[in-house]
């Protein structure tokens, strides 16, 4: 068991004080809160998380997890084309969860644009390894192999966005070409 899996655990409660919510989700209607072992809430409150995933079931799952953690989902987008069009709008994106292989190509141009912008990125893929050109260029990229527990995904997003605060939301037209 990895250190992250031990640190970030989902906590389901009947009554909640603090940061939690009552939501209808893929898992039904319940009150929840995610916290680490010290009881610090793991939430995405106020964060705008871009989701790019071409599998509708996984996209729905990611949407559900992020919303239950009080984040705002941007998308989900299922194609490289849709994602590139969105990124040209220069809307606020605080973090991104990206699948690598989409129906119309590899995520590389979107990944490059987000990294140029300083947006934290979590790769969420079924592949055991990243394509060589991505792995060589982005050695510090966080890669989670599907499936991942909701608490781990939320914890990793929170960790990625808390290091330097919210990221700049400047236009990225140049990076998209």
In brief:
The chain has helices at 3-7, 56-68, 80-87, 108-117, 132-137, 150-162, 173-176; strands at residues 8-12, 21-25, 28-36, 48-52, 72-77, 95-98, 101-102, 105-106, 121-125, 142-145. The protein has 177 residues and is an alpha/beta fold.
Write up this protein.
It is a single chain. This protein has 177 residues and is an alpha/beta fold. The chain has 7 helices and 10 strands. The chain has helices spanning 3-7, 56-68, 80-87, 108-117, 132-137, 150-162, 173-176, and strands at 8-12, 21-25, 28-36, 48-52, 72-77, 95-98, 101-102, 105-106, 121-125, 142-145. Helix 5 (132-137) links the parallel strand 9 and strand 10. The radius of gyration is 16 Å and the shape is globular. The N and C termini lie far apart (42 Å).
What is the N-to-C succession of helices and strands? HEEEEHEHEEEHEHEHH
- What's the overall average pLDDT, rounded? 75
Structural class: alpha/beta
What's the CATH architecture name of the domain at 44-163? 3-Layer(aba) Sandwich
Radius of gyration: 16 Å
The percent range for strand residues is 25-35%
* CATH fold title of the domain at 44-163: Rossmann fold
Shape, principal axes of CA atoms: globular
Task: Give the uncertain stretches in residue-range form.
Answer: 1-32, 164-177
Total beta strand runs: 10
